[in-house]
């Protein structure tokens, strides 16, 4: 590109570069001239500008301020805010004293390190990591000169290799590469902090703001630099991560704007040298060829560095985790020396004061000890309490193993028993220094039969109070004063078939198994109510945390109506008992439910009398009057033989095999046949249903009128055809299709078979 075609943009860039060079020259010839004469530079050393020239930074603006920020960043350090001091001016003596006793930057004369021999200095430098070398280069002008010299290159390389850093980038020195990798995470353009990502394609560390301002994508190159040829991009470093991509790579290439300007000036200078006869065209071709080879090496090196960055991040996480493990181990050792056990100390493993990647010091231990010890003591208290509960639970299970499964059904839950004052005195003991044993419960175990009987009696009294409470019948809206409202059905005893209870605390575990979370389960009779526990799992009724004596039962009005309707359906009165209904074992259809149609008939769900009550209370919450129909005995017996109980509610009545977990009826029968050699197990002698879990109802098909094949065709002449049976619609269709009878008439064209 000739000088005549030089654009205003490139001219401005050249002007800025010349001004920067002139300013640096003028400054070096000023107040620092004496230092330049007295301080000799080692042979082959790098200048400070060479140290900072990795990303086109300006020359030093103040050699006395030996901070790296003076040369490694493109922007000038912001001026300090002037301090407003309204105190009277100091005299000459005061000023001299203040200067001599101040805490400002120490000179080289005050630094003992610079007085050491050079070989000892280099030995010290050889033991430092890259971060320390960078810091040392900013503490003293003399140290900076030595560390930036060519002679120190091996020191920087050894430090980089010890830190497991990637090879030095093409076109950069060891010092420049160490600064990019291990220097402070600041933007090299605007000095913004917390810039942790290094762009290895651009060989610089830049913040998002500077990336947005300085990156030029290939598609916008002709608009930003209309006077330049796009072939210049082949000579420039680039990245695939734009300023607006949030760190995600793309297929586009982004170039640093100042790189474009500098490369254009460099090519411009080569063209001018060729025109002036200073050099030939071969020099430019050589430059372009070497530049392309350099870019190829930079791209290959960038892929190596990207892999190193990922591995370094993982390595840092591992080192951090290892430091946290060591800190926890040190804390654990100290607490174990104080007498605590490892099981209790594990409780503080995730505490914020423990999960720190710092070494535990004596001062830090004094700060965190009290709070951590309080948490450990609380864990110890809870652990000992749980151990006491495990012992009590073991003893109560041993007591239950001595009973039959038929007695388990009405046994109080563990929490009810442990809530008894005799147990609470030991379970809630505040003595955390002694470990409890089974011997501590010996006197209480002897009282278990008495404790169980008292809990059962108290439960019966509460249920009886609900039965004896007079019912409150509904008052019609148009009732006149003095009118007596109709009385509701009411159970006469706790074993009445009308004694339907619900838990006021809203327990819904039976409904959860059906998927209906808004329903409330019902319990029929005293024995059924005894199986309920608010905090217990339906399959593990003895494992819970809250005493079920807190369960608040109430008599269910809707459940009583449903039970009364069922009792009337089978021909009994309101004084029928649960035992009488269990003996009848009838099956019922719910006429409130909408049946499904199939095969010309209707499909209904079939319920036992207990499951029918639970079904109405749970499913028909918006209905007040139940509608039942008793299934005829023939169909009922057929369904009973086909019914399969798949609920985990059964247990063997000869052993304690299912004390911890009930099983299905099929598995319990198989157990009885195998373990107890009983060929035909019987209910309730051999196996019992311990839990009142709702079964999936069986389905029955009720044929519609005329849906049974019981009609003969009178138009057929052959005997076999005349004996053929049709359903009503079938025989009419047959007459229309076969005999062309448009309006078949009973008695003339078809009749009901007398043999059906």
From TrEMBL:
Disordered: region residues: 1-106
Name under which the protein is recorded: F-box domain-containing protein
Ranges of Basic and acidic residues composition bias in the record: 61-88
Matching InterPro entries: F-box-like_dom_sf (IPR036047), F-box_dom (IPR001810)
Species this chain originates from: Mycena chlorophos (Agaric fungus)
Domain F-box: 110-159
Amino acid composition bias (Polar residues), ranges on this chain: 1-14
A Pfam family matched in the record: F-box
């Amino acid at each position: 590109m000739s000088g005549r075609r030089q654009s205003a943009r490139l001219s401005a860039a050249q002007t800025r570069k010349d001004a920067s060079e002139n300013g640096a020259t003028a400054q070096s010839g000023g107040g620092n001239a004496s230092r330049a004469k007295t301080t000799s530079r080692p042979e082959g050393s790098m200048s400070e500008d060479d140290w900072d020239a990795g990303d086109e930074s300006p020359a030093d603006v103040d050699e006395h301020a030996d901070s790296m920020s003076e040369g490694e960043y493109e922007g000038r350090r912001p001026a300090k805010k002037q301090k407003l001091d309204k105190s009277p001016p100091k005299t000459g003596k005061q000023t001299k004293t203040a200067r001599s006793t101040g805490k400002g930057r120490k000179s080289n004369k005050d630094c003992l390190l610079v007085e050491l021999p050079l070989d000892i200095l280099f030995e010290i430098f050889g033991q430092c990591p890259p971060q320390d070398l960078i810091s040392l280069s900013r503490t003293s002008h003399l140290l900076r000169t030595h560390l930036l010299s060519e002679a120190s290159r091996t020191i920087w390389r050894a430090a980089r290799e010890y830190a497991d850093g990637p090879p030095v980038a093409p076109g950069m020195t060891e010092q420049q590469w160490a600064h990019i990798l291990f220097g402070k995470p600041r933007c090299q353009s605007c000095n913004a902090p917390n810039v942790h990502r290094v762009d290895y394609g651009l060989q610089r560390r830049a913040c998002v703001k500077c990336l947005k301002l300085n990156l030029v994508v290939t598609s916008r190159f002709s608009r930003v630099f209309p006077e330049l040829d796009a072939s210049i991009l082949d000579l420039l470093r680039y990245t695939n991560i734009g300023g607006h991509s949030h760190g995600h790579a793309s297929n586009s290439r982004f170039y640093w704007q100042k790189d474009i300007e500098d490369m254009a000036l460099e090519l411009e200078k080569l063209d001018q040298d060729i025109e002036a006869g200073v050099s030939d065209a071969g020099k430019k071709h050589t430059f372009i060829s070497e530049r392309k080879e350099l870019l190829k090496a930079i791209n290959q090196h960038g892929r190596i560095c990207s892999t190193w960055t990922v591995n370094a991040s993982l390595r840092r996480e591992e080192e951090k985790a290892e430091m946290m493990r060591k800190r926890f181990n040190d804390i654990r050792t100290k607490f174990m020396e104080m007498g605590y056990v490892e099981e209790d100390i594990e409780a503080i493993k995730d505490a914020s004061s423990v999960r720190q990647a710092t070494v535990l010091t004596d001062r830090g231990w004094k700060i965190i000890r009290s709070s951590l010890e309080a948490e450990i003591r609380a864990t110890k208290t809870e652990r000992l309490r749980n151990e006491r509960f495990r012992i009590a639970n073991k003893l109560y299970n041993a007591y239950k193993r001595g009973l039959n499964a038929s007695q388990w059904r009405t046994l109080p839950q563990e929490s009810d028993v442990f809530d008894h004052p005799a147990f609470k005195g030991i379970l809630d003991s505040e003595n955390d220094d002694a470990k409890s044993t089974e011997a501590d419960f010996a006197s209480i175990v002897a009282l278990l039969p008495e404790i169980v009987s008292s809990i059962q009696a108290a439960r019966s009294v509460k249920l009886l109070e609900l039965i004896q409470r007079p019912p409150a019948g509904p008052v019609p809206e148009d009732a006149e004063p003095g009118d007596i409202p109709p009385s509701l059905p009411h159970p006469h005893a706790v074993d009445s078939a009308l004694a339907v209870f619900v838990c006021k605390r809203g327990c819904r575990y039976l409904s959860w198994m059906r998927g209906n979370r808004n329903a409330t389960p019902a319990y029929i009779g005293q024995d059924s109510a005894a199986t309920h526990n608010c905090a217990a799992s339906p399959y593990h009724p003895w494992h819970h945390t809250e005493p079920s004596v807190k369960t608040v039962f109430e008599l269910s009005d809707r459940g009583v109506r449903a039970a009364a309707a069922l009792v009337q359906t089978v021909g009994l009165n309101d004084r029928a008992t649960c035992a009488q209904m269990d003996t009848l074992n009838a099956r019922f259809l719910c006429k409130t439910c909408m049946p499904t149609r199939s095969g010309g008939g209707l499909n209904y769900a079939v319920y036992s009398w207990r499951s029918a009550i639970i079904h109405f209370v749970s499913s028909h919450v918006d209905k007040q009057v139940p509608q039942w129909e008793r299934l005829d005995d023939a169909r009922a017996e057929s369904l009973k033989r086909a019914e399969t109980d798949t609920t985990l509610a059964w247990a063997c009545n000869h052993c304690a095999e299912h004390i911890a977990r009930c099983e299905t009826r099929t598995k319990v029968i198989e157990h009885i046949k195998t373990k107890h050699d009983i060929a035909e197990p019987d209910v309730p002698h051999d196996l019992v249903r311990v839990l009142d879990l709702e079964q999936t109802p069986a389905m029955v098909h009720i044929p519609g009128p005329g849906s049974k094949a019981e009609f003969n065709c009178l138009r057929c002449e052959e005997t076999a055809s005349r004996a053929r049976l049709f359903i009503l619609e079938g025989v009419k269709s047959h007459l229309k299709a076969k005999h062309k009878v448009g309006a078949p008439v009973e008695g003339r064209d078809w009749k009901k078979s007398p043999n059906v």
